[in-house]
Write a structure and sequence with these properties.
Blueprint (H helix, E strand, L loop, with lengths): L7 H7 L8 E2 L5 H11 L11 E5 L5 H15 L5 H10 L5 E7 L9 H21 L3 E5 L7 H7 L5 E11 L11 H4 L9
Antiparallel strand pairs: 1-5, 2-3, 3-5, 4-5
Helix pairs in contact: 2-5, 3-4, 3-6
């Protein structure tokens, strides 16, 4: 069993991301992916704007995605080395499942764009939780391919950004625990200013 889901506390304490390049089949089925995305969308959303959307990249589209990544790299660096190009293209073929989360804020809305972007981030975390709750492993990455103009124009409408690539599958290697923050360094108690 990937995670102990007997209690939510145990689950939250054991959830880990996997390395996309290490993920193997099986990945979520079409029905499971629909359920995962439905759960991901159950997130705080001030104003009920739904400032995000999902783009599913199917298996038969991975070669086209690799070509897009390659074109984007060549646009940025026309003299890119073949080894780097190969590495970038390989990312398009990681993991059995791939969902691209798009941040799609309503820029003229009374709810600040920052809050809408936080909603997209919350959706991303819920997507990972829902993936793990279905017995799979997920990873959220960005990298150059999330910021390259050619890639952005292929996935985003005006004013949108790629919030991340979500790779979904089964762990091909043992999931490793990573170092976590020292809570004493990131938690303080507020002291009201003297009035």
């Amino acid at each position: 069993m990937l995670n102990d889901t007997i209690s939510l506390l145990t689950y939250l304490g054991t959830r880990r991301s996997g390395r996309p390049r290490d993920m193997v089949a099986p990945g979520p089925s079409r029905d499971e992916l629909n359920a995962i995305l439905t759960l991901a969308a159950r997130t705080p959303d001030h104003g009920k704007i739904v400032p995000y959307r999902f783009v599913i990249v199917d298996d038969d589209q991975r070669d086209s995605l690799a070509e897009l990544f390659a074109a984007a790299v060549r646009e940025i660096d026309p003299e890119v080395r073949a080894t780097k190009l190969e590495k970038v293209c390989a990312k398009a073929h990681y993991a059995p499942g791939l969902v691209i989360l798009i941040s799609s804020p309503a820029r003229d809305h009374k709810i600040p764009v920052w809050e809408q972007e936080l909603t997209a981030g919350a959706v991303g975390m819920n997507l990972l939780h829902a993936t793990h709750a279905h017995g799979y492993v997920g990873a959220w990455i960005t990298g150059d391919q999330a910021y390259a103009p050619a890639v952005i124009s292929a996935f985003c409408k005006d004013g949108e950004r790629i919030a991340g690539y979500f790779f979904l599958g089964s762990p091909g290697t043992m999931l490793e625990e990573r170092e976590r923050p020292d809570m004493d360094e990131i938690v303080t108690r507020w002291c009201p200013p003297a009035v």
